[in-house]
Specification:
The chain is mostly helical. About 60% of the residues lie in helices and about 10% in strands. A two-stranded antiparallel ribbon has the order 1-2. The longest helix has about 40 residues.
């Protein structure tokens, strides 16, 4: 059996929706044992090293900064009305607002492109929800 990583990795020009790539289908529909296969293991390693690790570290660094600003401005020096602490609180609020706007744009874009999943709220009622909101790690 020949396995071509390019076919599993997929070309963004051919499949613009990342959730429709073969690897995404493996993640959504497959069994965990499949990822022990050397080809899928190598593919995940390539994707992590080329894209995932940098993005993950950047997002985590942003949230560590946001938590540090919040902790400093509102918890440690919560009673202080000094100019420095007001500046820290304004920076915290500004970064939080930017984060909210950025995530809102992503959610609206996913909804407009049809990149949604369905959540059942009643026995016969399924509500479309943007994919970003379907992942419990994003909430």
């Amino acid at each position: 059996v020949n396995y071509y990583i390019k076919d599993l990795y997929s070309d963004p020009d051919e499949i613009p929706d990342a959730w429709k790539t073969p690897l995404a289908i493996f993640c959504l529909e497959g069994k965990p044992e499949m990822f022990m296969h050397p080809v899928l293991n190598k593919l995940l390693s390539i994707k992590w090293l080329r894209f995932g690790r940098n993005l993950f570290c950047a997002v985590q660094a942003f949230f560590v900064l946001l938590i540090a600003l919040f902790t400093t401005g509102f918890l440690v020096y919560g009673c202080s009305c000094s100019t420095e602490m007001v500046s820290v609180r304004i920076a915290t609020g500004s970064l939080s607002a930017l984060c909210f706007l950025f995530l809102t744009v992503i959610i609206l874009r996913q909804a407009s492109l049809g990149q949604v999943g369905y959540v059942q709220i009643l026995p016969y009622v399924h509500v479309p929800v943007a994919r970003l909101l379907l992942n419990p790690w994003n909430l």
